[in-house]
Amino acid sequence: MKAAIVTIGDEILIGQIVDTNSAFIAKALDDIGFQIVEMISISDTEKAISETMNRYQNQVDLVVMTGGLGPTKDDVTKKTFCSYFNDVLISDSEVLKHVTALIEDFYKRKITQMNIDQALVPSKATVLFNKVGTAPGMLMKHEQTFFVSLPGVPYEMKYLVSEVLIPYLEQSFEPSYNIHQTLITHGVGESLLAERIADWENDLPSYVHLAYLPSPRMVKLRLSISGKDKVFLEDAIREQVEKLLPLIKDCLIGLNENETIFKVVSDLLKENNLTIACAESCTGGQIAKLLNEIPGASAYFQGGVVAYATQSKIDVLGVSENTINKNSVVSEQVALEMALGAKRLFKSDLAIATTGNAGPSKGDSDVEVGTVCLALVSKFGEKTFTFNFGQPREKVIDSAVNKAFEIIREEIIKNNS
Amino acid sequence: MKAAIVTIGDEILIGQIVDTNSAFIAKALDDIGFQIVEMISISDTEKAISETMNRYQNQVDLVVMTGGLGPTKDDVTKKTFCSYFNDVLISDSEVLKHVTALIEDFYKRKITQMNIDQALVPSKATVLFNKVGTAPGMLMKHEQTFFVSLPGVPYEMKYLVSEVLIPYLEQSFEPSYNIHQTLITHGVGESLLAERIADWENDLPSYVHLAYLPSPRMVKLRLSISGKDKVFLEDAIREQVEKLLPLIKDCLIGLNENETIFKVVSDLLKENNLTIACAESCTGGQIAKLLNEIPGASAYFQGGVVAYATQSKIDVLGVSENTINKNSVVSEQVALEMALGAKRLFKSDLAIATTGNAGPSKGDSDVEVGTVCLALVSKFGEKTFTFNFGQPREKVIDSAVNKAFEIIREEIIKNNS
Description:
The structure is a homodimer.
Chain A lengths: L1 E7 L1 H4 L7 H11 L3 E8 L3 H11 L5 E5 L10 H8 L4 E3 L1 H14 L6 H5 L2 E3 L3 E3 L8 E6 L2 E6 L3 H19 L4 E10 L3 H7 L1 H5 L6 E7 L2 E10 L2 H19 L3 E3 L6 H11 L4 E5 L5 H7 L8 E6 L3 H6 L5 H7 L4 H15 L3 E7 L14 E8 L2 E8 L4 H24 L1
Parallel strand pairs in A: 1-2, 1-3, 3-8, 13-14, 13-15
Antiparallel strand pairs in A: 4-5, 6-7, 7-8, 9-11, 9-12, 10-11, 15-16, 16-17
């Protein structure tokens, strides 16, 4: 079961937007056993679209295309899709009814010819009904390949993939499985980790694939296996994980495929009925955002303050001016007072604070570029830390955010086990 | 000058990560006149890499590949790259010196064989020296095509593209130009906008390409033109922009290629010496993040509170319990008290607040899903608003954030012109 994913639009090719649709579709297809052989972004011209359809015709079982289904002239996917199959466009009465209702009832204006034309679909296509927008998805089987065309607006695409396309594909293809097991490690670099597990890696059977995914402070190890016999696949992965675990016990933070240290911390907070707040300077809201975006965040996340300006640290968080003058605004003492301020303001069990200079140039403080101070306060005590995360800016911020979550995790585990 | 961008890694094909490298490279190449014909993501196997190199050989002038250059076994790009050109790997003494220094001085540990091997490069390659990491970039010209291989770690790739590759390409290729002019409109839907400008669009010369890029509350119109004669290209675009402007005057918010309503608001705040703070509930830190991430934010952004829990609205922002009980936590009155609280806490000139129910289910309030209340307070007065942005959740949050910036923009323009 091979698949290709095609995104259509010059805005992608000139770098005006990042294509996030492909990853969403890939994940959904991988989950039901497809092997994605290529993802490609192409221009919104009839030539590029039909050449790409041709290239994948009979080479893969499924081609999922997104984009180019809008009502305006620059969107040529529907026309090209239709002529590729030598079909004609007809108006779908269900779609027309839906578009009319959406425009007239929700947007409260009269329907126009462009809106009416959105209900046109190739006569032989299976319509993938789009409840959350005006452009329907379309599916056509041609020789050995299913071709699917979906709108590019992310929330419309997501709805159609999850609610309409995946259930359809599950009925149309024999079950197949991709099993991935990701092991997330923090604090040990990629090459050191590789040397540590070299013997195990050399003994891996050829049908188990290992990948290293490094990012600041973290390496994900992903074991993958594909096939039809789910029990065999799961056993094969489990056997390898059991051998690997003792080798990485000290730096392992989680085992769930989509686990992150953010999710781990979120789960620990929930399990232990702890609440948290944050006070951020150099991480500028990233910690709050990460604490906040996990479903169920309201159970533990009390809130956060982004105290960007030095004056805000004094006014909002109650950091003493004297502490700043004596120690510099980037100091463990200031981080500590920020954390205490957040804990007091939000009445939380824990509070984490960051203050640093992410660079590229020196800011309000004259500490070295890359320096970050962190503080964690809780009923178990107060802790402060100083690190230098080097450069560039992006790496400093990522490292500081990750380190903050490592600190929170260790504190909760140490005091609750 | 045609180019293709190739990203290598199964983590992309299974949807484990979103490929953001391609957009960065595309933008950089587009800026110096390249036409990106395709972006493709492929598996990290020798077969997929060499087939893809073959496919683009002599079809494009430049192929930029990222990923698969790490020290571990799953990274096969360097080996494949080298054997594609029938070359051999040799150790580069400059790179080895740099890797040794980085490991021994910065990470304070002994260098290993894996680190030493990172200094291997094909003997005929031009080395793109990587100051911010251990894996060097490589460049080889083969027949009509330049092939470039870069590490996939985003900040390393960005450094190499901006500081090393682009200057090299500017010297190696004759100057060519892609001129884009983006006009950003807010508040008028795509099909209504298209009908309004239909006559102008029909009269566009064939060498000027128009694209519509819709997202919640916003449509970007992008005019593009490519060629060698910069003066002609710029004149042709300017002529069309001048004809288009009067047709969209009421909904236009900006003309800079990379302008966003966030950048527009940031500029307005700076020009008028105004400071701002925010208090967010349903937008969960998005407004703070957007205010914060524009360079120079410290000139106007005083800080923000993410008051997720109802109790935090009371404790931190000083919203009265009585107001919440009388009006519901999602109400204009609560939004107003949140904004007043943020303005007082951060001593800012303006403060914006959001409270709403983004769905999918009803939360602390029983207002309809999709309802968002906003408030803006400033020395010019207090304003409150209620909207229903429908569903799904993502669209509600995007719409609320955009609407918040529209409100700030209008308020500043009205009172400072």
